[in-house]
Specification:
8 helices; single chain; about 20% strand; alpha+beta; 9 strands; six-stranded antiparallel beta sheet; about 260 residues; Multidrug-efflux Transporter Regulator, Chain: A, Domain 2; Beta-Lactamase
């Protein structure tokens, strides 16, 4: 067990109760893990334990995901169900899906008001690529919610429809030049119906621990491709979105 804080100003300090909420366990369980050294921690001058967010995320990545039904009710906290990993999802998920969802919940971004910082990035993404639509999407278990959107009226879609679910499991961008010819997407309701997506290009947007929360993506209703310059510009804008998220303090989210 460490008796001093880990270095770095971009790695938030958590109380024991905040740690418990992120891990989805009772405070008593978090205390046990802290005292046993499972979680690195240190004591404040007042004798209170503190934990770095990075330590919590490392533990989450080592733990297999479990459903609410399989968990011990005594150790559960009221984390919204859409931030609990699905047992048998109908969409691709990264290996660290449970930790990814916990990290997304911790941002407090889902269902938050529009913000100029993100709207500016989607506007720039559309401008530099010439796309008719641009989105900053966030992926919960149940839905794809748009923190920022340009050229699209709807604020969210079911997670099963999300091109972005495929993008966050890749090391690089997902580029689909004609979705109507791609077996992964040709029967997707967003392809067969409004807005009749044909082209998609998206990079993962991550938190400070490189967990993919969603994507910055551009779309069009006609087949097309990106030039090398457009591809690089979209990459840089997604990096700016990740930096904007990473510099913010965590905002733990629980059910009402």
């Amino acid at each position: 067990m460490k008796n001093h804080p880990l270095p770095g100003h971009d790695d938030p300090i958590l109380t024991t109760s905040e740690t418990a909420r992120l891990l989805g366990v009772a405070v008593s369980t978090a205390q046990l893990w802290i005292e046993s050294g499972t979680l690195d921690s240190w004591k404040t001058p007042g004798g209170h334990r503190r934990v770095r967010l990075s330590s919590v995320m490392r533990l989450l990545e080592r733990q297999p995901s479990r459903s609410r039904a399989d968990a011990d009710p005594a150790t559960l906290v009221s984390l919204p169900t859409e931030f609990l990993a699905a047992d048998d999802p109908d969409y691709p998920v990264p290996e660290n899906e449970a930790a990814r969802l916990q990290a997304l919940a911790a941002t407090g971004l889902v269902d938050s008001p529009a913000e100029h910082a993100f709207d500016r990035l989607t506007w720039l993404a559309a401008q530099v690529t010439g796309a008719s639509m641009a989105l900053l999407s966030l992926l919960t278990t149940k839905r794809q919610w748009f923190k920022s959107r340009l050229g699209l009226d709807t604020a969210e879609t079911p997670r099963e429809w999300a091109f972005c679910s495929h993008a966050i499991v890749q090391d690089n961008a997902l580029v689909v030049e004609d979705a109507s010819r791609d077996p992964r997407f040709r029967d997707n309701p967003l392809v067969t119906g409004h807005p009749f997506i044909r082209f998609y290009a998206g990079f993962a947007v991550t938190d400070r621990n490189q967990l993919p929360l969603g994507t910055l993506c551009v779309l069009d209703n006609k087949p097309r491709a990106l030039t090398e310059g457009q591809f690089q510009a979209l990459h840089e804008l997604s990096a700016l979105a990740s930096e904007e998220i990473s510099r913010r303090p965590i905002a733990l989210k629980t059910e009402k």
